[in-house]
């Protein structure tokens, strides 16, 4: 830290060396005599021209006298002005000294103040620390960030108590609760938003998704389906409502109908985008399942004409292709500092959730605290919804939670731990340490 301030002081001194010497350099008073001589030479030249004009009778005596009087007056004015400038020089030098003193104080002070305001003095300490110590500091920063999120949620709750008609606030609070696995609170926030605007399509669909995510089966049947169909009646082209309607069909084993609904949305997306890729995988999965439901008869399997065989083979290959399997090996452990808060028979839910997309887990396994530390494999076979698997997304976050109640719904007091974003297909192993208590 001392070396940094020494270097900073040297740079400030260098900056002042460029500013102050030119400002304090003394000027030699040679301008006034030269200017007087120039003014006199100009006067004599013009006077000679005026006399030549009078000799050549180009002007009369009266005009000559008037013009000469004007020249003499201008000469006196120029000489007086030069004297005035000469007498002002001492005052100008004093001003330069005053300005130099101000700059010598203001430049270092403003530089230090700007650094303390905009800069990050703590980074110097991090550079001086070793890699392990930096990691410990970053871990503490993550904990502080989580605390800050809880503080922001608390402020939003207080604001909604003062302004309970704030629709956007309730929607934001609901999404935040679901993002932090507080499904019961999140559902309550969405219910409040729906009571404020039961006819707005985004609110209807958000409430439908919340109802499904908070239910044990994660199903859209019942009230969620009613809300989705009502939204489609209001706007048949709403993409979210169409996607959810396709999900209803998929969960109801109407796979071809789901594929058709999703394909219409896929046709409107930018080819090659991540969203188009994920939805295309869902369309393929739905078509594969629809093909498995239909067993063609002998007459239906008659050979196609030779001219169509190639196209038929290509279509068949596309429709019978399956999504690539994906799996993650998760090493789960319990932090000894909080191990006393868990009983050996408590349930441990190990799950993977998409970093972007629906909040429902893509794969879940259940073990017990007495099994820890344990190695758990998450794969497509554990998907809670057939259309949402590990292989259907590119990035997930992996977590583990000790449930005091024994059910999958997170509750205050549960012990939990999460990993950062994990690339599906590129990462085969990830470690999760249960090291915090759910508020």
From TrEMBL:
Residues 287-320, 403-423 are annotated as: Disordered. The keyword Signal does not apply. The keyword Transmembrane helix does not apply. Keywords: Cytochrome c-type biogenesis, Repeat, TPR repeat. It is found in: Cell envelope. Residues 328-435 form the Cytochrome c-type biogenesis protein H Ig-like domain. It holds the Pfam family TPR_CcmH_CycH. TPR repeats lie at residues 167-200. Residues 293-312 have a biased composition (Low complexity). Gene3D superfamilies: Tetratricopeptide repeat domain. Residues 141-274 form the Cytochrome c-type biogenesis protein H TPR domain. This is C-type cytochrome biogenesis protein CcmI.
């Amino acid at each position: 830290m001392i070396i940094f301030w020494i270097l900073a002081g040297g740079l400030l001194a260098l900056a002042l060396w460029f500013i102050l010497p030119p400002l304090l350099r003394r000027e030699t008073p040679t301008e006034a005599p030269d200017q007087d001589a120039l003014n006199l030479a100009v006067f004599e030249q013009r006077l000679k021209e005026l006399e030549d004009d009078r000799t050549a009778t180009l002007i009369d005596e009266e005009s000559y006298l008037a013009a000469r009087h004007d020249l003499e007056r201008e000469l006196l004015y120029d000489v007086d002005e030069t004297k005035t400038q000469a007498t002002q020089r001492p005052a100008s030098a004093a001003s330069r000294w005053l300005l130099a003193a101000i700059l010598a104080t203001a430049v270092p002070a403003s530089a230090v103040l700007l650094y303390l305001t905009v800069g990050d003095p703590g980074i110097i300490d991090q550079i001086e620390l070793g890699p392990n110590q930096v990691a410990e500091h970053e871990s503490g920063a993550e904990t502080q960030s989580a605390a800050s999120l809880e503080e922001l949620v608390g402020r939003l709750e207080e604001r909604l108590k003062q302004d309970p008609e704030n629709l956007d606030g309730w929607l934001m609070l609901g999404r935040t609760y679901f993002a932090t696995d507080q499904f019961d609170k999140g559902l309550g926030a969405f219910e409040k938003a729906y009571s404020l605007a039961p006819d707005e399509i985004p609110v209807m669909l958000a409430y439908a998704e919340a109802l499904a995510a908070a239910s044990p089966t994660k199903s859209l049947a019942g009230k969620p389906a009613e809300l989705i169909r009502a939204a489609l009646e209001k706007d048949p082209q709403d993409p979210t409502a169409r996607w959810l309607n396709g999900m209803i069909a998929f969960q109801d084993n109407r796979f071809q109908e789901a594929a058709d609904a999703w394909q219409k949305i896929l046709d409107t997306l930018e080819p090659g985008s991540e969203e188009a890729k994920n939805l295309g995988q869902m369309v393929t999965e739905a078509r594969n399942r629809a093909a498995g439901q239909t067993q063609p008869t002998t007459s239906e399997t008659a050979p196609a004409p030779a001219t169509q065989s190639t196209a038929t083979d290509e279509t068949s290959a596309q429709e019978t292709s399956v999504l690539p399997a994906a799996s993650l090996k998760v090493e789960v452990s319990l932090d000894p500092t909080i191990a006393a808060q868990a009983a050996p028979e408590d349930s441990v839910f190990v799950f993977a959730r998409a970093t972007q997309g629906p909040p429902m887990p893509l794969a879940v396994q259940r073990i017990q605290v007495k099994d820890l530390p344990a190695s758990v494999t998450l794969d497509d076979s554990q998907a809670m919804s057939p259309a949402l698997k590990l292989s259907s997304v590119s990035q997930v976050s992996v977590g583990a939670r000790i449930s005091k109640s024994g059910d999958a719904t997170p509750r205050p007091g549960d012990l939990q731990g999460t990993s950062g974003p994990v690339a599906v297909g590129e990462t085969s192993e990830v470690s999760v340490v249960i090291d915090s208590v759910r508020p």
